[in-house]
UniProtKB/TrEMBL annotation:
<dbReference type="InterPro" id="IPR003439">
    <property type="entry name" value="ABC_transporter-like_ATP-bd"/>
</dbReference>
<keyword id="KW-0067">ATP-binding</keyword>
<keyword id="KW-0813">Transport</keyword>
<dbReference type="GO" id="GO:0005524">
    <property type="term" value="F:ATP binding"/>
</dbReference>
<dbReference type="GO" id="GO:0015658">
    <property type="term" value="F:branched-chain amino acid transmembrane transporter activity"/>
</dbReference>
<dbReference type="GO" id="GO:0015807">
    <property type="term" value="P:L-amino acid transport"/>
</dbReference>
<protein>
    <submittedName>
        <fullName>ABC transporter ATP-binding protein</fullName>
    </submittedName>
</protein>
<keyword id="KW-0547">Nucleotide-binding</keyword>
<dbReference type="InterPro" id="IPR052156">
    <property type="entry name" value="BCAA_Transport_ATP-bd_LivF"/>
</dbReference>
<comment type="similarity">
    <text>Belongs to the ABC transporter superfamily.</text>
</comment>
<dbReference type="InterPro" id="IPR003593">
    <property type="entry name" value="AAA+_ATPase"/>
</dbReference>
<feature type="domain" description="ABC transporter">
    <location>
        <begin position="7"/>
        <end position="239"/>
    </location>
</feature>
<dbReference type="GO" id="GO:0016887">
    <property type="term" value="F:ATP hydrolysis activity"/>
</dbReference>
<dbReference type="InterPro" id="IPR027417">
    <property type="entry name" value="P-loop_NTPase"/>
</dbReference>
<keyword id="KW-0029">Amino-acid transport</keyword>
<dbReference type="Pfam" id="PF00005">
    <property type="entry name" value="ABC_tran"/>
</dbReference>
<dbReference type="InterPro" id="IPR017871">
    <property type="entry name" value="ABC_transporter-like_CS"/>
</dbReference>
Length: 242
């Protein structure tokens, strides 16, 4: 592996038409870390996640993964480097069963590990095992989120990108999902890059965090430091404890 960060984002600018969504963003994610981006709605968090995968493309700057420049690489080739994503809004296959959804996530190179990987997902999310033959569309929001993360894990990623995993879910389910992320990081040393509106939960979970405001990183530090930072508390944490 390269020395330096597993994922390195340098001076990235992304546009929608003529509207600049990211304005020279710099972010590092080191191997084995959980790193979070927090910010208000429309700050550019999801855009940053999508730019890593090349959709939309960065118009300026550079994105490197494990020493490879992926800035202009096609999305399917980026995925092949073992970056997996659980996108905002979950986007599972509603007509497919839980097991079929997991099959869709499995990488063709790793089919020999399929049964072992499915078991790992079921150990992490026992609820999915109970629903193995159910169609994705009939699951609750929390179960769909578990399935979305499970499907991403089937690719045996080096880096897992999670976009708003707690969105629209009950606090108890959010707690389960954050605990599962912590468990993955601890036991499998999985590197996780997390975009979250639930700043309190995300900063408690993350080793380090970045604050994104209108497409600019305005602050960064350890999760603990950002949690206790008065500006962060005032902007994102007042009344926002989950």
């Amino acid at each position: 592996m390269s020395n330096g960060p597993l994922l390195q984002i340098r001076g990235v600018e992304t546009f929608y038409g003529n509207i600049r969504a990211l304005n020279g963003v710099n972010v590092d994610v080191n191997a084995g870390e959980i790193v979070t981006i927090i910010g208000a709605n429309g700050a550019g968090k999801s855009t940053l996640m999508m730019t890593i995968f090349g959709s939309p493309r960065a118009r300026a700057g550079q994105i490197t993964f494990d020493g490879t420049d992926i800035t202009n690489m096609p999305t399917h080739e980026i995925a092949r480097l073992r970056i997996a994503q659980s996108p905002e809004g979950r986007r599972i296959f509603p007509r497919m069963t839980v097991l079929e959804n997991l099959q869709m996530g499995a990488s063709l190179d790793n089919l020999k590990y399929f049964d072992e990987d499915v078991e790992k997902v079921f150990t992490l999310f026992p609820r999915l095992k109970e629903r193995i033959t159910q169609r994705g569309g009939t699951l609750s929001g929390g179960e769909q989120q578990m399935l979305s993360i499970g499907r991403a894990l089937m690719a045996r990623p080096k880096l897992l990108l999670l976009d708003e995993p707690s969105l629209g879910l009950a606090p108890l389910i959010v707690k389960q999902i954050f605990e599962a992320i912590r468990e993955l990081n601890k036991t499998q040393k999985l590197t996780v890059f997390l975009v979250e509106q639930n700043a309190f939960g995300a900063l408690k979970l993350a080793h380090r965090g970045y604050v994104l405001v209108n497409g600019n990183v305005t602050m960064s530090g350890s999760g603990k430091d950002l949690l206790s930072n008065p500006e962060v508390r005032a902007a994102y944490l007042e009344g926002g404890r989950h």
